[in-house]
Amino acid sequence: MASLAFSSTSASPVALRGRPNKLAIGVAQSGACHVSARGSDRKARLFITRAVAVEKKVSRFEDVAMAPPDPILGVSEAFRACTNESKLNLGVGAYRTEDLQPYVLNVVKKAEKLMLEKGENKEYLPIEGLAAFNKATAELLLGADNHSIQSQRVATVQGLSGTGSLRLAAAFINRYCPNSKVLISSPTWGNHKNIFNDAGVPWSEYRYYDPKTVGLDFEGMIADIKAAPSGSFILLHGCAHNPTGIDPTPEQWTKIADVLEEKGHTPFFDVAYQGFASGSLDEDAFSVRLFVERGFEVFVAQSYSKNLGLYSERIGAINVICSSSGVANRVKSQLKRLARPMYSNPPVHGARIVANVVGDPNLFSEWKAEMEEMAGRIKNVRKRLYDNLSQKDKSGKDWSFILRQIGMFSYTGLNTSQSENMTNKWHVYMTKDGRISLAGLSLAKCDYLADAIIDSYHNVN
Ligand code: PLA
Fold first, then answer.
1. Residue 303 CB less than 6 A away from ligand 1
2. Which atom of ligand 1 is nearest to the CA of 72?
3. What confidence tens digit (pLDDT) does each residue in 371-414 have?
4. Cis previous bond, 178, omega within 30
5. Ligand 1 contact via 270 beta carbon (within 6 Å)
6. How far is the CA of 187 from the centre of ligand 1 (A)?
7. Cα–Cα distance for residue pair 277/91, rounded to 1 Å
8. Where is 352: in which H helix or E strand?
9. Atom 6 (ligand 1): residue with closest C-alpha?
10. What residues form DSSP beta bridges with 320?
């Protein structure tokens, strides 16, 4: 008789499969029983081997630490878990209707209907993505008659929305400009740092936001860009800077271009809000077009999450405007080479939606009208919030900076504890840097939000 520290029935590998390993050990330790080894020592050894294997397999990942929740997407998780009726999700930049419901654009529904009627197949796309999409996206960004397009100097590769496009460009920088640094604004969209960290690209910050004026620290920005090693990549938000909502003026953009030229830096634009900031696609592309016009080689990551509401379709692009068509061809070939082992080729659905909307004059003008409407709703909410704050706050504080900010967000100036008070006391879910997404706010809720902001600002240090 052999005494084994497990039950021959319940501790069988099949029975254990799918159970948490800790439970398996519990069984192994407490369920001691006798198993007959008569007839076959081998059988008994097998059981022992299995038991040892089970015990050893606590987990090879036991030392993996819990990752912190994402500072932006984690806010939505916390919001979903909250049961308070007044709760508001002003964390992630996702457009909501006045009833605070997600919005699918009518042009998207129409394009999808067209796509269904065409009955297109689901074959793999080429690595660089859907040709009609790539053409449309570069034209939207630069203008169809832009010289860089006419002379085939633009390398466009469809990406996994803005994030995936930024990540692909970061991988390119890591491989082909390994000693270059990327300069990012302080503050910036939090994921920029993760993207460059994971791609192994060194980065540092340039001054951008001045808390004293709640405006742009233009002098600081220029000084830091000047001080960066020549040939750095300077990450710029094409429009509607996230999180501050503060953009340089056209004159300031020109000065920024002068400094980049002087230092031999390469501009790298993140364009996540084209058309969403001002309501006009062309106006919001001003900064990018200025740099292209001036003859820079430019990186531009684009996203259709916000302007077409295609958040979960993961549709965007990376464009590299090069000095010759030969360089553009080679750059594109290397972007494809980087994409292939990462995700092979991009998804087709969102690309077809964009291509159909942009390619059809009626849908295109309908899209522009819908975009204006969305941008307009956000502007109305911004104004109402400002009105409520200035009427209710008797301290004399000037809230007019809210009106000067543009895009989806308002950077309220609330610090971490004040932002936490917004959530803990008022059930207003927002990022800890004091950013609120006005796209998730309704006119009806401005009054409540103003009370929450005034309380948090004046009563919490
Ligand atoms: N670049 C900037 C400046 C962004 O604000 C965002 C999205 C992206 C890129 C990436 O968007 P995409 O991958 O969906 O195209 N920022 C959001 C969402 C709206 C997020 O954090 O992912 C935000 O709440 O800041």
1. yes
2. 21
3. 999 999 999 999 999 999 999 999 999 999 999 999 999 999 99
4. no
5. yes
6. 14
7. 18
8. helix 349-359
9. 272
10. 155, 299
Q: Are the beta carbons of 200 and 352 closer than 8 angstroms?
A: no
Q: From atom 2 of ligand 1, which residue's Cα is the shortest distance away?
A: 272
Q: Is the CB of 165 under 6 A from ligand 1?
A: no
Bridge partners of 359?
A: none
Token reading at 269:
């634009």
Instruction: State the alpha helices, DSSP H only, in 206-304.
Output: 218-227, 250-263, 281-284, 286-293
Cα 105 to Cα 440: distance, rounded to the nearest angstrom: 16
Alpha carbon of 286 to those of 236, 271, 408: distances in Å? 13, 11, 18
Q: Find tokens 């049961």 and name the residue.
A: 83
Is the CB of 161 within 6 Å of ligand 1? yes
The first and second tokens of residue 395, run together, are 């301290």
Span from the CA of 6 to the centroid of ligand 1 (angstroms)? 52
Handedness of CA 311, 284, 376, 247 (dihedral sign): positive
Whether the model pTM is above 0.70:
yes
Give the integer Cα–Cα distance in Å for 342 and 338.
7
N- to C-terminal Cα distance for the chain? 72
Q: How does strand 266-271 pair with strand 233-237?
A: parallel
Give the tens place of pLDDT for each residue, 200-253.
999 999 999 999 888 999 999 999 999 999 999 999 999 999 999 999 999 999
Find out whether the beta carbon of 92 lies less than 6 Å from any atom of ligand 1.
yes
CA distance 414 to 95: 22
